[in-house]
Amino acid sequence: MSSKLAVLLYAAPAFAQLQPGDAVSSGISPAALDRVHALLESEVGRGHMGAASILVARRGTIVLHKGYGHLSRQPGAPAVEPDSVYIVASITKPVTAIALMMLVERGKVSLQDPVSTYLPEFSGADRANVKVHDLLAHTSGLPDMLPENTELRREHAPLSEFVKRVYTTKLLFEPGTAFKYQSMGILLAAEIVERITGMRLRDFEEKEIFGPLGMNRSSLGMGKRKISETVQVEDSETTNYGPNTEYWRNIGAPWGGMNTCTGDLAILLQTFLNGGVYRGKRILSPASVRAMLTDQNTRLHAPWGLGFALGRSVSWNEFGELVSPATFGHAGASGTVEWADPETGVICVVLTNRPLSVDNGHFLRLVSNAVAGSVEK
Fold first, then answer.
1. pLDDT in the model for residue 8
2. What is the topology classification, in CATH, of domain 95-197?
């Protein structure tokens, strides 16, 4: 991270708290925000997607926070609110990474240790060369999903069975020599957290992240909610393991099982812009924040932080083309994206219920560009 970026992250606007405010005084064009609103309103109004929520903020001032559509397409379904709860898919990954980094800064884990130091079952062949760092930077050689992923989900296998299979699955390349997006590496990162803390990841995150930050509508898994109280993913598959089933919503997959809302994700992004603290509650040190937002794969020319995608990441990047390279965030296959740009102080969270696969994230890139282009000064 450059010294310029460090100043941007931790200087005067740091420790900002998110509050509704005026777009003009925040240096945001109201006309541009109207275009952002029109994009979402039109897409939902024409029936191209059933639901969407958005939050845009700059330097602590929320300038757009709206919901569109209904929780499902069932007759009489409640209207979507700005902070309706969605399953956000891979936006879950950075939160799992935060949990692991908490243990790093507490002296419980080293990123340079072999994964087998903490998970002895992960052994044999090249697995001894997979470092904890590789799990968060997507350089482990593990596959995104297990070859038997569908079979396990169809059988409603517990997460422990997924972990067991990862221990022996074939690596796709020598660890550290290439970049390939891998959900199974995040699963092992979660297993390390659970082994060391003796807690379920969902409970650790509630205690150490969601609770302290006031992310009261966030949970890994469903928490105490009913699926009918959340936005339903528009899934064309009628299976017993899809994104709207009790099984998948409650399994708490550390790579994609978080349920949350725009406001809570904005708090998390602002916490990182603030150097790890929000409303007086510090969850990470500035050193951990810097590490997570620094490109870990410079020699591979595959920009990625520790858990976070960056502004020039080429995989799962729905940030658009107008954000700075310092931008960090993530996208999710259920139709979601979050990002924050330290150079402009802009936060953007767009949650929809239309899977990215429908248009390869094209619509979210359009919205992101419109948001990034709204900054006037």
1. 45
2. Methane Monooxygenase Hydroxylase; Chain G, domain 1 (1.20.58)
Upper half-sphere CA count for residue 256 (Cβ side, 13 Å): 18
Q: Once rounded to an integer, what is the mean pLDDT over residues 277-286?
A: 96
User: What's the distance, CA 69 to chain centroid?
Assistant: 23
pLDDT bin (cut points 50, 70, 90) of residue 2 is: very low
Domain layout of the chain by residue ranges: 3-89+226-372, 95-197
Would you identify the CATH topology of the domain 3-89+226-372? Beta-lactamase (3.40.710)
Of the pLDDT bands very low, low, confident and very high (cuts 50, 70, 90), residue 1 is very low
Whether residue 104 has pLDDT greater than 80:
yes
Q: How long, in residues, is the chain?
A: 377
Q: Please, which contacts does 165-174 make with residues 24 or more away whose CB atoms are closer than 8 Å?
A: 166/122, 166/142, 167/119, 167/121, 167/122, 167/123, 168/124, 169/142, 169/143, 170/125, 171/125, 171/126, 171/127, 171/130, 171/140, 171/141, 171/142, 172/141, 172/142, 172/143, 173/141, 174/126, 174/129, 174/141
Confidence check: pLDDT of 270 > 60: yes
For the segment 262-291, the average pLDDT, to the nearest whole number, is 97
Please determine whether the domains at 3-89+226-372 and 95-197 fall in the same fold group of CATH: no
CA dist 285 and 337 (Å) reads 25
Q: Which amino acid, 67? A: G
